[in-house]
Amino acid sequence: MRTISPLSLISAVAALVTLLMVLSPSQALASPVSSVKRATSSNYWLANVKRQGSVAFGSDSSYAVYRNVMDYGAKGDGSTDDTAAINAAISAGSRCGWGCDSSTVKPALVYFPPGTYMISQPIVMLYYTQLVGDALNLPVLKATAGFQGMAVLDSDPYDSSGANMFTNQNNFFRQVRNFKIDLTGMPQTAGAGIHWQVAQATSLQNIVFNMIPGSASKQVGIFMDNGSGGFMSDLVFNGGNYGAFLGNQQFTSRNWTFNNCNTAIFMNWNWAWTMKSVSINNCGVGLDMSNGGSTNILIGSVVLMDSKLTNTPIGVKTSFTSNSAPATAGTLIIDNVDFSGSTTAVAAADGSSILAGGKVVASWGEGRQYSGTSGSRVQGSLAAPSKPAALLDGSGKFFERSKPQYENMPASAFISVKSFGAKGDGVTDDTTAIQKAMAGVNSNQILYFDHGAYVVSKTISVPNNIKMTGEIWPLIMATGSFFSDPSNPQPVFDIGKAGQSGAVEITDLMFETKGPAPGAIMLKWNMASAQGASGIWDAHVRIGGSAGTGLQSDKCSKDPSSTAVRTGCEGAYMLFWAGTQSSGVYLENTWFWVADHELDLADHNQIDIYNGRGVYIESQGPVWLYGTSSEHNIFYNYEIRNAKNVFMGMIQSETPYFQSNPKAPAPFVPQRPSDPTFSICSTQNPSAPCYKSWGLRIVDSTNVFIHGLGLYSFFENYNQDCVATNNCQQNMISLEGSNSNLNMYAVTTKASVNMITLDNGIAAALDADNRNVFGATVAYYRKGGSSTRDCDDEDDEEYEDDEE
Ligand SMILES: *[C@@H]1O[C@H](CO)[C@@H](O)[C@H](O)[C@H]1NC(C)=O
Ligand SMILES: *[C@@H]1O[C@H](CO)[C@@H](O)[C@H](O)[C@H]1NC(C)=O
780 near 731, Cβ under 8 Å? Predict the structure, then answer.
């Protein structure tokens, strides 16, 4: 999350203009109900498993986590107005809406059986809500002819004064999956599918938007004004003026199909957006990122990769020119995009051609590119790096796999951890029960964590072949002396063993600590896996700031005036570790969040949680990270070391708001060779804010591809004066040792004087040379060299970490 930015306020004006267009008065003509469909029961396991989840830290023992909209009166028959019933299903149990800000103790998993649900006003998604349609037979949410309001689904409503229900960049913990949203019954002058104004730990998956096609259509599939996300995948947009109208700090999207939209994607504003596997068919324009014009471009950057346009005359529209402003705004990377179906691949705002279509474009960009320490403005072809086969699928795209939903598994295949004696009550030590459960399911079964809080006091050895999922992010909470020693850290979930090969799938779980656990490695993965055999999707690590963690604002509130370290406010040792023996590592939409503010107690104050390390990768690959974020860790948010064949897109980080009080790495000391010592700070200006967390370190690694980075520093000891002057910290990205075939695209940093720092503290790219709409952006940073280096070289011994 982060606090309000001047940029998003400016861009919001543009968003609001379009918003008013969407909401302009309709000339509604009631369309007859053609067929009567009734909501039906289904074999989808999610509708049929025994429900025994409960909230461990709530006050209401009768609170229902799971709700079927039929139980609240929805009919799904294609004629009854189901709006009130669905909103009742969502809101039952005094949930978190107006004036609440946030709450983790009122989650709701709301299920929709197959059927056609008539909707006349927005369905309001309260905080911590998942809306899940039947995966076997997608329910239809059909807007009535007279629909009134912003969108069929609304993740963050506005009141009549223009105030939001939730602060957009703190609007966490949502899912919407398995729906058809149908606007075709509305007049073509109005209608939006989803108002998706969200932040981290949110996802849209497997949704079809049906809109009226044609040049007069004003309909929009997704309307996104702002936020700080986020991830979405597997979406189909049919018809409409804009398939997706987008504005957000940063986002990753994957596997989108647009058919017959006037403009498939309208980018209203952003800092960074990575789009992969986009198919655009029979549209006028594929991606319009020209907003603001060449004197005031509002788009920070877009990476468009592994995509294809068919019968779409203009691929990408841009306002970037040889002297457009801000300097690097409108940064664009095109990586492996098939424009054979476009006349013009990249067009200026007036439609004139910058890059002709009719071909596959391997690597093209606009912005500023670097090699070594020299940067230059580019609008043209980029060097096309060689991509190792291990990272690619059979068609030459970077491998991807959507979150499994197990839609073809019967409910009987889901085995509850409670059947093995786990309590999930936030108090009982469930270590033994969970370990028994892990051994007790076979490869045709799925281990199910009912909602609750499962306390573990020792490592859970996750077998090398297991699938597990949870009921709206049940908490796995590490606690106690076993996890207390930073000089002897222990994994909480130890996924497979070094030397083993297997298939592990983890979805919809949340990992936390209960009290300080400075010796806990939250997730460790050190087994081998074939491409696509394993993965972690929509599972998150959240340290402190919420009920039950004991690391809340009553104890850990910020105090910038004091140099004393708050005792008892340590988080974990490390959030994710891909070990030397790991391969086939796949993460998608995982948020590694050390809380910067309180989610449950009424003050919602900012808090100091001291957490050692974020995401550490020393795998020989392949490794794929889609839509991950790692925030507020003391040493680093991401580190890639002695690693090989790593793809990440996009990654986002934030420096702890309290630094440099204390100066990194305090209150900890380096424990292993991979811990940065911050010794380069002694070579830099002593008054520079150098002792701050690295957003990203890459050390002695080969074949690293990072498509989209947003690494931010917003504070110096909670003071934000440095945001405007872009010097909250001295360094953000460190490239050390002998990296080769390292490729970073659309590198955005905020308020770091040096964007990229080389060995011995030499700056490769400066913020001042690369100003963008809010941060600073380097379009392409490349360190070439052969990719044949063997990372198991004995020479590397001195750099290797101790393995327990
Ligand atoms: C988000 O967008 C809305 C609609 O344009 C605007 O009213 C609001 O001020 C924006 N919020 C921020 C923080 O920019
Ligand atoms: C892409 O999304 C579509 C629509 O949800 C889905 O059918 C398809 O399986 C997805 N493709 C991949 C590679 O996940």
Answer: no
